[in-house]
């Protein structure tokens, strides 16, 4: 639809001229597809062929949650938008993370109440859960959905039901899971410094409100070849504690926030960028793909345990 494209492009240029923040899409469609495809290709032969060669359906779903945001529908957006990031600097319980999103919201509310009691209403307001973000919960919820989808596929095979709809459903969940894991490998999705440095300036880091979009979409589109992740992944590992492993992965991503700003300052992501800039992005994409492959593999193994009660179809 050329007219729609024209208006979208005009809108983006207008925002660029205003130096307004552009919408944050995680990795952009290309990065999300690279990560999902590399993770599926990394799976061993013990997984069914549909999971190892999911094809176009997985790639379509890999950035579906970003299209939910682009659609601009109010209730969907309120539910979905905070699932794409987590501002780790704000999280007040690094040692013992709540195991589900509702306990997490309660813990943030309790921390905010303590701040209000000490007369820090502005800091308390920053702890609103939808401002801190839910990425690890979106990831673990979709991981557990995938365990169920694989259990359903196994049950269907045992009961001699046609497997195709079960396989299609599992691929859909693999796609949704891939999205939030990929977002978790993008350093700017783990930080309050998500779109230009704020607060005291440590080293001349950019304050441009375009760095997020330029880094994750423009630079990936221009500078990262389609085969960039070939040969970059190790065989997937079984994760006995997927949520804990996922949090470690997020903190490893977060450790790359300052290096990202340092590289940006050196022009590493300008145009086709420098070798160091491309290497940095490929390493982040590979970290996302590796975590995703580990989760796919672990979900399959976990699904060998039967569900608590037999499924009804
Ligand atoms: Zn996203």
Outline:
This protein is mainly α and 313 residues long. Helix content is 61%, strand content 0%.
Oligomer: single chain
The pLDDT mean sits at: 91
Assign a percent range to the helix content. Answer: 55-70%
CATH class category label: Mainly Alpha
Q: Would you tell me which CATH topology applies? A: P1 Nuclease
Describe the largest sheet.
Answer: none
Discrete helix count: 15
Rg for CA atoms: 20 Å
Query: Any idea what the shape is?
Result: globular
CATH-derived architecture: Orthogonal Bundle
Residue share in β-strands: under 5%
Distance between the termini: 40 Å
Low-confidence stretches: 1-23
Q: What bound compounds does this protein have?
A: zinc ion
Number of strands: 0
Class by alpha and beta content: mainly alpha
Number of domains: 1
Element pattern in H and E: HHHHHHHHHHHHHHH
């Amino acid at each position: 639809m050329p007219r729609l494209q024209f208006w979208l492009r005009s809108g983006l240029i207008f925002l660029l001229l205003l130096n307004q923040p552009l919408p944050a899409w995680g990795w952009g469609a290309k990065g999300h597809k690279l990560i999902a495809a590399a993770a599926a290709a990394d799976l061993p032969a013990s997984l069914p062929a549909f999971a190892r060669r999911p094809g176009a359906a997985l790639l379509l779903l890999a950035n579906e949650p970003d299209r939910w945001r682009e659609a601009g529908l109010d209730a969907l957006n309120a539910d979905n938008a905070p699932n794409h990031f987590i501002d780790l600097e704000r999280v007040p319980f690094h040692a013992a993370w709540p195991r589900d999103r509702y306990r997490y919201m309660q813990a943030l509310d309790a921390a905010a109440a303590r701040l209000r009691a000490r007369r820090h209403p502005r800091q308390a307001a920053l702890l609103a859960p939808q401002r801190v973000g839910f990425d690890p919960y979106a990831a673990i919820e979709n991981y557990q959905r995938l365990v169920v989808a694989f259990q359903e596929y196994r049950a269907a095979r045992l009961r001699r039901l046609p497997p195709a709809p079960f396989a299609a459903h599992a691929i859909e969940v693999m796609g949704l899971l891939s999205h939030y894991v990929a977002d978790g490998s993008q350093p700017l999705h783990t930080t309050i410094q998500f779109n230009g440095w704020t607060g005291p300036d440590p080293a001349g880091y950019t304050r441009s409100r375009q760095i997020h979009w330029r880094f994750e979409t423009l630079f990936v589109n221009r500078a990262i070849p389609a085969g960039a992740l070939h040969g970059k992944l190790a065989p997937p590992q079984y994760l006995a504690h997927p949520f804990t492993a996922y949090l470690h992965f997020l903190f490893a991503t977060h450790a790359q926030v300052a290096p990202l700003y340092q590289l940006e300052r050196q022009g590493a992501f300008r145009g086709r960028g420098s070798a160091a800039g491309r290497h940095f992005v490929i390493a982040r994409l590979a970290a996302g793909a590796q975590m995703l492959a580990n989760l796919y593999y672990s979900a399959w193994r976990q699904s060998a345990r039967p569900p608590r009660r037999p499924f009804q179809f």
